[in-house]
Design brief:
With 702 residues, the chain is α+β, with helices and mostly antiparallel strands. The chain has five domains: 98 residues, Sandwich (Immunoglobulin-like); 131 residues, Sandwich (Jelly Rolls); 114 residues, no CATH class; 182 residues, Alpha/alpha barrel (Glycosyltransferase), CATH 1.50.10; 98 residues, Sandwich (Maltose phosphorylase, domain 3), CATH 2.60.420. It contains 16 helices and 32 strands. The strands form seven sheets. Strands 9, 10, 11, 12, 15, 16, 17 and 18 form an eight-stranded antiparallel sheet that branches. It has a seven-stranded antiparallel sheet with strand order 19-24-25-26-32-28-29. A hairpin with a 4-residue loop joins strand 20 and strand 21. The longest helix is centred in the middle third of the chain and has 22 residues.
Length: 702
């Protein structure tokens, strides 16, 4: 694959063309073949040609890397002459491994360049349409039929209708919700309903129903649907009203619009059926909400926001081997940020995630100065903390972060979901984000060889951690306050401090107990960081309880109310204007693979991966987790004997952790005894490192 595009390189969109790269010097990545234990790439050979036949013959007239020694198989830079605009190129790779000195060429893959190229510019695939037939068609009376497509989707509707006279008119109703057996015409909030009259011509004809643009979600800040797709509406149900003939399933269909998506790229199943349903809800939500080709906040506005993008990005990584849409969204938001202070700081998080999951540093390098600005060190006061209310938001500062108006602290959204957070001059949540930004900026500077900057940011975050704890940590209670002038302690003040690594070891238990005591006192957005903090503190039982809850503040409630895409809020009660198609409500799409199954990259591009499952009371789990190097397959059987099976793809190493059952256990790996080490301050054993291949760890008490 090209790092510039997704894994499948020749997906054809509605206009007959595939996505185009916009970089003169693209990066290449590929999956190294081989299933034997310890398979490692030892060399590669890439060719690029402007002639398919030459490429098929293994000849690169544009670039021939020759045989290059090394294990690098992700983010390999093209080093030929600059690619030209509006051209097609063909590339192949030959990967040599320690298990086979003879290697075959890969299939020929196509590179199509855009009209205007830069040395580096993010690009993505074009949107596609998937034709979907009804699941059911029900006749409600002689002239009314209800069509159910099974799931909500951003779609266009087509139906075949017949008129003997050519004077008939039918009404097509499209909607997301039913009530008393019919589509609800007044569903409330921004839940969608549309009624369209269609005049029928004489005879049998196929009618593609035109969806008129919505004034709000096609405004200046909204992402517009491309002309080769046309306007879409989210709907699950359709009604054909005023039509006497019986419709058949082959006479009705919708075209669901989405970014190219591999439904088989990921898998999860466990012993808790509620969690299985929630996984499917959230996985599908990532696919369904990709309709704009860039991460947006749902159908009400169709505007990109950083908070949506962070959750969407990690969810996308968790369910598909896809990286380009996340990068395009990230770089869009670097240029067009939104108003919340915390979300300005999230630029460091999603840009770092891009590098960590792909190994491609180009976005870091291209946006280096902007990322430095987005740490918001300009807002630092004499006390070492940052604030948006002390007069430091100058025109120069706002220009440096690509924003015009003043930024404001948000904590969570909607404001009723902040657990009573008391805002002041210096707020703990914003400053926790600032600390995380300083840490990430140190890593970014190191990667890019900016040693002076790296040392500066290291010194800054070390000093800042002490200032933060001196200011916000109430040592008597062992928990964090919302601000420097209030005694109020919210869930958010504590979960962000825990998630970003600010809590001193001696206060972890008191902070975690407080977090647990607050329940789900956050929005669906805040739940991302709440769950991360719980897994950081090894409170997996409580995390599982929240994931599988069935009350009104739960993912299962989204299913109960009838949605098939994650909601913008836990329920209409908490956000009356919410829409029913918000990916920021799909945190389990990333939490399940990253934290419950415990699969996260330790080195960029998944060179080394952590395998650290926290399955709590689940007796069985299995997962397929996509990575840029190929799929990781794993399962856990959590009974009298704890059994972990892991298969790592070639050219990847893993570091395995097991739950600490007691101080006296016996552990074997593929039948051989393994000496495990207790992890300081955590209820885990480190079972050591594993190379690629398949492994079964068995652990039992002596």
């Amino acid at each position: 694959m090209l790092t510039d595009l997704r894994a499948a390189t020749e997906i054809i969109a509605e206009d007959g063309h595939s996505g185009k790269i916009l970089s003169r010097y693209p990066y290449f990545s590929w999956i190294v073949a081989g299933t034997q234990q310890r398979t490692k790439q030892i060399a590669y050979h890439i060719i690029v040609s402007d002639d398919r036949q030459l490429a098929a013959q293994g000849k690169g007239n544009i670039w021939d890397s020759g045989k290059v020694r090394g294990s690098t198989s992700v983010a390999v830079p093209y080093k030929g002459a600059a690619l030209q605009a509006d051209k097609r190129y063909f590339w192949r790779v030959k990967s040599y491994t320690n298990k086979s000195q003879i290697s075959a060429w890969s299939d020929v893959k196509v590179i199509t360049t855009g009209a205007q190229l830069k040395d580096y510019q993010a690009s993505a695939e074009k949107l596609v349409k998937t034709k979907e037939l009804p699941v059911t068609i029900a006749s409600l009376n002689d002239t009314l039929q209800l069509i159910d497509f099974g799931k909500d989707a951003f779609s266009q509707f087509t139906v075949q209708l017949e008129s003997e006279s050519g004077k008939d008119t039918v009404t097509i109703n499209l909607g997301e919700v039913t009530d008393k057996g019919r589509i609800n015409p007044k569903p409330g909030g921004t839940i969608r309903y549309r009624s369209i009259k269609v005049a029928l011509a004489k005879g049998l004809h196929t009618y593609k129903i035109k969806i008129e643009p919505d004034q709000r979600n096609t405004g200046p800040a909204a992402i517009k649907m491309p002309s080769y797709i046309g306007e879409v509406l989210p709907f699950r149900y359709a009604e054909v009203e005023g039509y006497k003939n019986k419709l058949t399933k082959d006479a009705v269909y919708r075209e669901a619009v989405h970014y190219p998506f591999n439904d088989q790229a990921s898998h999860f199943k466990c012993s808790n059926d509620t969690l299985n349903q929630i996984w499917e809800l959230c996985k599908y939500s990532i696919k369904a909400t990709s309709f704009a080709g860039i991460y947006v906040d749902g159908d009400r506005e169709r505007i990109p926001y950083e908070a949506d993008a962070v959750i969407n990005q990690l969810g996308h990584y968790g369910v598909d081997r896809e990286y380009a849409m996340a990068r395009v969204s990230s770089e869009y938001l670097l240029q067009k940020p939104t108003w919340p202070t915390e979300w300005i700081l999230q630029a460091l998080i999603f840009t770092w995630n891009d590098y960590l999951y792909t190994g491609d540093p180009r976005s870091l390098k291209e946006n280096y100065q902007l990322l430095k600005n987005r740490t918001l060190t300009h807002l630092k006061e004499k006390n070492g903390l940052i604030s948006t209310t002390t007069g430091k938001q100058t025109t120069e500062f706002l220009k440096s972060i690509n924003f015009k108006d003043k930024i404001r602290d948000i904590v969570d959204w909607p404001t009723s979901e902040t657990d009573g957070f008391k805002f002041g001059t210096y707020n703990s949540v914003v400053n926790a984000y600032h600390y995380e930004a300083l840490k990430l900026m140190e890593h970014i500077a190191e990667i890019l060889g900016e040693k002076t900057d790296a040392q500066y940011y290291k010194d800054e975050h070390i000093q800042f951690k002490q200032i933060f704890n001196d200011t916000f940590l109430d040592k008597a209670r062992g928990i964090y306050k919302d601000g420097d002038t209030t005694e109020h302690a919210s869930l958010h003040a504590n979960m962000f401090a825990m998630d970003f690594g600010l809590v001193p070891p001696e206060y972890v238990i008191s902070v975690m107990d407080f977090i647990r005591s607050r329940g789900m006192a956050s929005s669906v957005y805040g739940s991302q960081f709440l769950l991360e903090s719980l897994y950081d503190g090894a409170y997996a039982d409580h995390a599982l309880a929240l994931l599988t809850a069935t009350d009104i503040r739960s993912w299962y409630n989204m299913i109960k109310v009838g949605s098939t895409i994650s909601l913008e809020a836990w329920d209409n009660k908490f956000k009356p204007n919410q829409d029913w198609n918000h990916a920021w409500g799909a945190a389990p799409a990333n939490i399940i693979p990253r934290r419950l199954m415990g699969v996260e990259p330790l080195k960029p591009g998944f060179e080394t991966v952590a395998i650290k499952p926290q399955v709590a009371s689940l007796t069985f789990t299995e997962a397929v987790i996509p990575t840029i190097r190929g799929n990781i397959k794993m399962s856990v059987k959590n009974r009298e004997t704890y059994e972990l099976t892991v298969t790592l793809p070639a050219n990847m190493d893993g570091e395995v952790y097991l739950p600490r059952l007691s101080a006296d256990v016996v552990v074997t790996c593929n039948g051989k005894m393994v000496r495990v080490k207790e992890v300081d301050g955590q209820p885990f054993y480190n079972a050591g490192k594993i190379p690629s291949g398949s492994y079964t760890f068995l652990m039992r008490q002596k």
